Amino acid sequence: MGVAGTTGPVMDRDEVDRALARLGAEYEAIESSLLALQDHAGRRLLEGAELTGVTKDRWAAAEQAIALLWSYFDAYTAALRGARELRARRRWPSREDLAELTDVLRGESVTVAGGAVAAAAQSSATPSAPPVTGITGPAKLSERFTLAALVSRMNDLYAHSLDMIVTADGVWSALPARIDLLAAELQRTRSLAHSVGVRPGEHPSGDDLESITHELAMLRAQVVTDPLAFWHPGLGSSAPGGGRPDTERYDRAARALEDVRREIEAVLTVRQDAEQRLVRLRDVLSRADRTLTEARSARGEVLAKIAASEVPAVGGPPTALQERLALAADYRRHAQWHRLSPLLESLEREAEDELLRARESLTAVTAPLAVRAELRGRLDAYRAKVARHGMAEDPLLIERYDAARRMLWSAPCDLRVAEQAVLRYQQAAAELLVPRQSGPTDRTDHRGRTP
Q: 46, 49, 117, 382: which could join 143 in a potential S-S bond, CB 3.0 to 4.6 Å?
C-alpha cells in the first residue's frame, strides 16, 4: 500500500489490476444488458404505440432514462479506457502512476453535466413522486461520480427502465390475445343469438351481448394504449416485472358471456324439441280435461246413489292454459324461440299441476263410492268367514246381513246408517265365532225370539 491521498491509500499494482478486471467484467455485463434492453420486444412495441395515461408518462421517463444510460455508459467506457491506457504505460508503474490510477479508479473521475444528473434522478423516481431538479438539490452545472457510483446509478436506471418495459410487455402478452379470443367467441354467440331471435331491445340476453361487445372493445383499446393501468405489482418483489396482469374486467366479461351462452343454448334446445314438448303438453292437458269430465260424471252418480254425503264441486276445464298453449304454438310457427322458451317452462309446470288437481278432484268426488265399496267388501268377507265355520244359516246373522245388504245395494245409500248395520253384523258374527267364557249367550233377536 502507498501513501494515503484524498481517495484513501494508494493502490498497489495488484489492486489496480484486480480493480481493472472487475470494472472490465462490469463493463461487459452492462453492455450486454443495454444491448438486450435496446432489442427487447416490449421496447419496440412501446416506441411504436400511441400511449395514454400512466404508461405514456412512464414511457417518456423511461426513454429519457435509456438515453441517459447510454450517455453514462459512454462516460464509463471513456474512463475505463483511460485507466487501462494509463496502466499499460509501464509494466511496473511508478508511485505517481499508481496514485493517478487510484484517483481514476476510486476517485470522482467521471464528470456528468448537471442537466443529465437531474433528468436521471427524475427518471429513477416513482411515477407519483414530484419533479426533482438534481440529486442533492437544485441542478448544478456538472456533477462528478466515482466509477462505482456511476455503475450504481446505471443499475438503478436500468432496473426502472426494464421494469417498465417488462410490465407493459407482460400485459400486452397476456390480455389482448385473450380479449381477441373472447371477442371471437362473442361473435359466434351473437350469430347463434340472432338465429333464434335473441336481439337487443327484444330479449335481455341480446342487451347483454351488446353491453359485452362494448366493454371488450373499450377494454382492448385501453389495454393497448395504457397497459400499465392493468398491472398488479407483486408484493415484496424487487425483480423487474414482478406482479401479474389485472384481468378483473376481462374475467367479468367472460363470465357474463358464459351466462348468455347458456341462455342461448337453452333457447336452441327449445327450438330442437319444441314440437315434442308441445305434443306432451297437449297430452297432459287432455288427460286433465278427461279426468275432470270423469269427476263431473262421478259426482252426478254419487249424488244419485249416496245420501247425506257432502260431495265437492268439480272445476271447469283449464281454458287459460289452452289459450297459452295456443300462444306457444304460434311462437313456434313464427320462430320466436326466445319467447317460446320461458312460456314452455311455465306451461309444463302448470299443466302437471292441473293434472294433479284433476286427479285429486276425482278422488275427492268418488270417495263416498269408495267407502260404500269398502263396506260391501267387509260385509261379504264376514259372511264368507261365518260360512266357513258352518254358521251361515243362523237366523240372527241372516237377518242382520239382509238389513245391511239392502242399505248398501239400494239408492240412495245412507253411508252412516249402512256402516252401523255392517258393524252390527260383525258384532253378531264375532259373538258366534268367539263364545263367551261365562254362561250361555243371550241371543234373543229384536222380536224376542230365540233361534
A: 117
